Amino acid sequence: MKVAWAGSRETLELSDRMAKLVANDPVFEKFTRPMLGRKELFKNTLRKAAHGWKLIVDLRLTEEEAKWLRLYIDEPAYTDLHWGMFIPAIEGQGTEEQKKKWLPLAQKMKIIGCYAQTELGHGSNVQGLETTATFDPQADEFVIHSPTLTSSKWWPGGLGKASTHALVYARLIVGGEFHGVHGFIVQLRSLEDHSPLPGITVGDIGLKFGNGAYNTMDNGVLRFDHVRIPRNQMLMRVSQVTKEGKYMQSDVPRQLIYGTMVYVRQTIVVDASKALSRAVCIATRYSAVRRQFGSRNGGPETQVIDYKTQQSRLFPLLASAYAFRFVGEWLKWLYMDVKQRLEANDFSTLPEAHACTAGLKSLTTTATADGIEECRKLCGGHGYLVSSGLPELFAVYIPACTYEGDNVVLLLQVARFIVKTVSELGYKQPVGTTAYMGRVATLMQNNCAVRTAEDWLNPGAIVEAFEARAARMAVACGRQLAKFENPEEGFAELASDLVEASVAHCQLIVVSKFIEKLQQDIPGKGVKQSLEILCYVYALFLLHKHQGDFLAVGYLTPKQALLANDQLRTLYSKVRPNAIALVDSFNYTDHYLGSILGRYDGNVYPKLYEAAWEDPLNDSDVADGFHQYVQPILKQKLHSAKL
Ligand SMILES: CCCCCCCCCCCCCCCCCCCCC/C=C/C(=O)SCCNC(=O)CCNC(=O)[C@H](O)C(C)(C)COP(=O)(O)OP(=O)(O)OC[C@H]1O[C@@H](n2cnc3c(N)ncnc32)[C@H](O)[C@@H]1OP(=O)(O)O
Ligand SMILES: Cc1cc2nc3c(=O)[nH]c(=O)nc-3n(C[C@H](O)[C@H](O)[C@H](O)COP(=O)(O)OP(=O)(O)OC[C@H]3O[C@@H](n4cnc5c(N)ncnc54)[C@H](O)[C@@H]3O)c2cc1C
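Above: inputs. Below: predicted complex with LFHR5U4W.
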């Protein structure tokens, strides 16, 4: 199962090597992180990033190894935005000449870049950005300016203190005409002494949610006062401005300017399974250690993992972690395919890639953020201790529901794609993830054939149920929209229903990709069978949770919904014997898990007890401040017993 989770034996060995490298290096210690003040915390992150980079250079790590190293270091740093957004943006939107100039500098870390798109006033609405880039043909330069307070760049990671350069998204003005938002490489700080260049005001935006957590990152604010950059620092693959001041659009679609977001959304889906599996690993191991009630004749109490309620909350999350792992693998493939096509100027699959990355980013991050919090509750009171690892994991993870596109805004993008597909059904055969809509007549007509709980153990029955639900919800939205004279007004009015239809479509993708994965050759005794059980748990859990949808569209009867739930209970009993093995298969070191509750050796209580004494409050028996603030109250002489 370790191999199945990792993807291959080579990846398992490689990731294991990187995990151990990090776990055994004292520089990457992270247990004191929540106790550190902001300055200390940030300096420590700089130290870790420098040490990480040194290892990459000294050990000549490959890109793949460096990515695993970053994962196991487990600390957001400015380097994420440099490698994860600044470099990919130049790769995707720069001309060959621009790539030749900027990529070697960035890849050798001679410059440090960030991705400065969001502003104080606008994040989701990219076309609403206010920063301007006005072309001055006399000087052959762009003038970058922040005309209002709300145009201040706000949020970019790495901008606050570390970056020397930024990829700034600004409204292009040529000859007094606006040409929409484009990307510009702007130097922010001196390469000599790191001080801000003239016309640049830059700093950190302040503390964020939770202790430690995302506060290792210097999310920044940036303002420009008529800052001049050479013309060739506008990324010009999509459109060009000539020396003479002529704006030219190439054949490349304008949406390619959003290409970096598509890339990162894809990586976020892959990462969702890592964050969720980590929380699930902690909660599962601890649920086997923890015992409450049920002692008979002086025997041991019941392990909480044996309670059906614990299983019905925990096992769907375990199954979701595996489901997200496999859909992430598929999405990576889809992205690589689109990337190759884009390089060959084939843009036909870009809308599908946008809809899939946006929808799956939204679906998996929402489920993961909620899942981490559920795991905290599954660990009872001890889950609330920082030493459980869950509070910091939650605090660091939840912004994923907002960054790279607010999850609701992204589902509305999926809705546009679905509605368009439905409206074109008469004359255009849908392909890819919407191919099922080509069978819409059958899906609208056929009803579920399940008669017994065992009938639900059938991939065909499951896929058809999810297809029928998604198709019927999409068609219902299409019919409702048709009643509006103005389609945009209709879209705004029906937004909540459209979001639900998008969720149904995305859940169908995850379920189908899990089932497709099981059609592959999966070596290892019992591995495929265990994955099949998890796949059914994932699908039937969703079906149970959203049974209202399946019933409302008239595909299922209440009896069939009840049978699905009966089958789910049986499946939980099948997961139980292998639950610990299924989380051990993630192959996480204790360092990476960062949790006393999730320790591999299960030695939870002695370690919790020991850790309590390490809290600074326990440095002395009498706390600082006692004599000043508590003792006077204790010694106070009141005239009356009543206050
Ligand atoms: C420590 C030691 C380390 C050592 C070093 C080791 C190094 C190793 C390597 C490490 C690598 C690390 C990797 C880490 C990964 C990165 C970490 C991530 C951290 C997160 C940081 C966060 C960053 C951000 O948040 S950046 C800002 C993101 N912002 C958004 O997402 C904004 C959301 N809004 C939008 O996307 C748009 O504005 C939108 C889509 C909502 C609306 O846009 P619009 O212009 O108004 O468009 P619209 O009219 O609706 O649609 C027009 C048309 O275009 C289509 N469309 C829209 N978007 C896209 C798209 N992206 N692609 C393609 N097509 C798109 C849309 O569908 C419409 O189509 P039609 O209907 O056909 O016209
Ligand atoms: C930790 C973190 C790191 C970040 N890093 C970066 C970075 O490196 N670079 C960068 O450029 N940006 C970064 N961002 C910014 C991030 O991309 C934006 O915050 C994000 O895109 C959401 O935009 P917003 O803040 O404008 O939200 P808003 O759009 O203001 O959202 C507020 C509410 O309005 C709703 N809403 C908005 N529009 C609609 C609509 N059309 N229909 C229905 N509901 C709507 C949303 O659902 C949400 O509930 C980061 C943000 C965070 C939290």
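The pocket of flavin-adenine dinucleotide (ligand 2) is lined by residues 81, 115-118, 123-124, 155-157, 214, 219, 399, 402-403, 405-406, 408-409, 412, 495 (CB under 6 Å).
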